[in-house]
Amino acid sequence: MKPLHVIMLLATLAVACSTGANQETATTADVQLAEGQQNKIDYTAAAVDSAAAPAPPAPEEEQVLNSGNAIPPAPFNRQIIRNAQIEMECADFKSFSAQLYGVVKSNGAWLDSDQETQSDYRRQNVMTIKVPVAKFDALMQAITSLKGDVREKKTNSEDVTNAIVDVQGRLEAKRQTRARYMELLKQANKMEDILQVQEQINSITEEIESATYNIKNMQAQAAVSTITLTYYQPIETPNGYNEPGVFTRMLDALGKGGSGIVELSIVLLTLWPLWLVVAGLIFWIRKRRAATSVVKQSS
């Protein structure tokens, strides 16, 4: 009996030792798992904080920010239409014209129109010159430096950059709208729907073409400037006087007006047979109306 009790006691002790070892192993594993999860959470939080934090500025940007000045924007090519009007008086018309044509050609410009006139008092030429905008100032300087007196010089400019950007934005919006209508056209099944969508597409296409033309027109005007040049040579009259003043021209106008009245009177007198026919017709109409009135009163 004693050996049996001893064996049972030893078995009980072995089971207890095994259970304690397993509990200790499980406890150690749980602690390691918890530590691993905590490390994972800490690593994830550190990664989020690192992504949310702003990157340190570059040395140049840090220097600019510390100086209190903003970073300058990138340069933008503005679209500016430049035009000018010049009026000059010259002593030798032919010599001035020859020099002018040479100056225009040397600056890469060309003549858009050329109109020469001559009166009793002056010989004059009105030219419209087209020049690339990069040569505008150089050509203006070259023309005004010719041998002659500048009587008038005006320059004007118009910045169409904002207008071009605005039209380009609306153009892009219209293109996107047309693309959506094209998708609707592919999905339409009824003839009525197809016709309505096609009508909208045609209308938007016309607006796109008009906007495209406006953009190209403004860009072309900004790329090429226009100079309107008027130059003249006074012509001396035989009596030594040049072009008459305002008072003299007013008297001439009055004289010409009187001459016009005389000419008109002569023309009216020339048509006297017509006036006789008209007078006879008026007399006959009045006589007929009077006879009709008498008949109505007697009845």
From TrEMBL:
Protein name per the record: DUF4349 domain-containing protein
Keyword Cytoplasm attributed: no
Region of interest (Disordered), residue spans: 50-70
Signal peptide: 1-21
Domain DUF4349: 78-285
Originating organism: Phnomibacter ginsenosidimutans
Highest taxon listed in the record's lineage: Bacteria
InterPro entries from the UniProt entry: DUF4349 (IPR025645)
Coiled coil is among the record's keywords: yes
Coiled coil (UniProt feature): 171-221
